[in-house]
From TrEMBL, chain A:
GO molecular function annotations of the record: oxidoreductase activity, acting on NAD(P)H
Species whose genome carries this gene: Streptomyces lavendofoliae
Pfam (any one): Pyr_redox_2
Protein name as catalogued: Pyridine nucleotide-disulfide oxidoreductase
Superkingdom of the organism of origin: Bacteria
Co-factor requirement: FAD
Entry keyword set: FAD, Flavoprotein, Oxidoreductase
GO terms under cellular component: cytoplasm
TrEMBL record, chain B:
Domain of life: Bacteria
Entry protein name: Ferredoxin
Pfam families membership: Fer4_15 (PF13459)
Organism from which the protein derives: Streptomyces lavendofoliae
Length: 407, 62
């Protein structure tokens, strides 16, 4: 249904993270004469989420402001764009093209971008207390401010999990001089589901070498707490206890529309949410056809993925309104990096789907000297990882990625 | 347009060197080295490098 004659079409973007912002920018760049409204349930405009755990701040009364300033992302300053922050979209009716907001208002749209992201998984409801600890998670700017404050005070921290958030947080806590305990009951070390057991065990050793108490298996499980929120045990000591055990896509508001919400929001290679020609999804929540392993779907929670899929969703939406050509398919090359206690870890391609690995150079017992790993599936390379304190094999890594991209 | 890297923000993650090896590289010590000037035909690689930085340390300035 075309918009009413004479009125500008209305575009709703649900989610004010980088995917939502990039979708808005792409729509504006395609010169769609529309009114765009960006809904965000946080009070903050778009910020650089990876930056929340990447550096230590000096003691200051202005810590909250310093962090916000540091992770600020330039927004799209444009009269066509309205920010509705602190406003949650409670439900959506895609057939009638209406969003129902937490304020009781409704918003009718002609085009919709779903960029509602994910939230941390937690073993208790909310930030509840289990009887021993105040469970917290780390996702947003407010979480990061709270944690930086507590780490500045030099408190002991317990971290559950050994993924990216957990490892960066452990690294940050060590920089602040805190005592760190990490509990990973399910796997043998960091990033095991992506990089495999051998690399994972080597990374676990790296943590231990840097004075982190890293426990796995039963010894970790014993220290996980009773998870009943109403557990009548001793009062919580309020110790810093952060769960970094994965995430849950924010899709509940889309229930009742007949969508496939089994792992985020299912989209096609143009980020379109079938069967709706005017609905698109992007960022952490979007589950799309994996360009790397045909026939599979993928959902990625990385900064660059949010940027590229946000751009594509915006361009596809503009195209659906008659602006710009039908957009290119996903051309995204998965590449990410993190730094854990001085060790740079770069990962590219799709090592998760591999059936074999090969050390190209270096020695897993000496990570700081550089180790380059290739990941294979049926004999062909599908991913690579590079760990190093310096960058002695960096050009070899880039060469490896070149052949990976061009395969 | 020229490339400008905020050295205070940069943590040498090296994602830019993957996106645009013509202008960015990590030296043997792992420190980022880059060339400010780029040719227009590489603009999409350069923009990709700007986007891929997890610290958002790269700017294009005219």
């Amino acid at each position: 249904m075309p918009p009413l004659a004479g009125s500008r079409p209305r575009i709703g973007i649900v989610g004010s993270g980088i995917a939502g912002l990039r979708a808005a920018k792409a729509i504006l760049k395609c010169k769609v004469d529309a009114r765009i409204v960006l809904f965000g349930d946080e009070a903050h405009r778009t910020y650089n989420r990876p930056g929340l755990t990447k550096k230590r701040y000096p003691l200051s009364d202005a810590l909250d402001m310093m962090i916000a300033e540091d992770v600020k992302v330039n927004g799209a300053e444009n009269d066509a764009l309205t920010w509705r922050l602190g406003t949650r979209v409670e439900t959506a009716d895609l057939r009638d093209r209406i969003l129902h907001l937490s304020t009781g208002e409704t918003f009718e749209y002609d085009g919709l971008v779903i960029a509602s992201g994910v939230r941390p998984r937690t073993s208790v409801w909310g930030n509840g207390e289990c009887g021993l600890h105040a469970h917290r998670t780390l996702r947003g700017l407010d979480d990061a401010r709270y944690i930086h404050h507590r780490l500045q005070a030099g408190e002991k921290i317990t971290i559950v999990g050994a993924g990216f958030v957990a490892c960066e947080l452990a690294s940050l806590a060590k920089e602040y001089g805190c005592e760190v305990l990490m509990l990973e009951a399910l796997r043998s070390g960091p990033f095991e589901n992506i990089l495999g057991e051998r690399v994972s065990v080597a990374l676990g050793r790296w943590l231990a070498q840097h004075d982190i108490t890293f426990l796995t298996g039963d010894s970790a499980r014993e220290l996980l707490c009773d998870l009943q929120p109403s557990h009548p045990g001793p009062p919580s000591d309020g110790a810093l206890f952060i769960e970094a055990i994965g995430s849950v896509p924010n899709v509940e508001w889309l229930h009742g529309n007949g969508l496939d919400l089994s792992d985020g929001v299912r989209v096609d290679e143009y980020m379109r949410v079938a069967p709706w020609a005017n609905v698109f999804a992007a960022g952490d929540v979007a589950c799309y056809p994996d360009p790397w392993t045909p026939g599979n779907l993928t959902r990625m929670e990385f900064w660059k993925n949010a940027i590229d899929t946000g751009d594509l969703a915006g361009r596809s939406l503009a195209s659906s309104m008659g602006h710009g050509p039908v957009t290119s398919r996903i051309g995204y090359f998965p590449s990410m990096s993190t730094e854990v206690l001085g060790l740079r870890i770069q990962i590219a391609g799709n090592p998760r789907m591999s059936d074999a690995m090969e050390i190209v150079c270096g020695d897993l017992d000496q990570l700081d000297q550089g180790v380059l790993v290739a990941y294979l599936r049926e004999g062909a390379m599908i991913g690579a990882a590079y760990m190093d304190k310096g960058a002695r094999f960096n050009s070899a890594y880039i060469k490896l990625l070149k052949s990976l991209r061009e395969r | 347009m020229k490339i400008f890297v905020d050295r205070v923000k940069c943590q040498n993650h090296g994602q830019c060197a993957i996106s645009a090896p013509t202008n960015f590289e990590l030296d043997a010590n792992g420190e980022l080295q880059y060339q400010e000037a780029f040719s227009e035909e590489n603009i999409s690689d350069i923009e990709d490098a700007v986007d891929s930085c997890p610290l958002q340390a790269i700017l294009l300035k005219s």
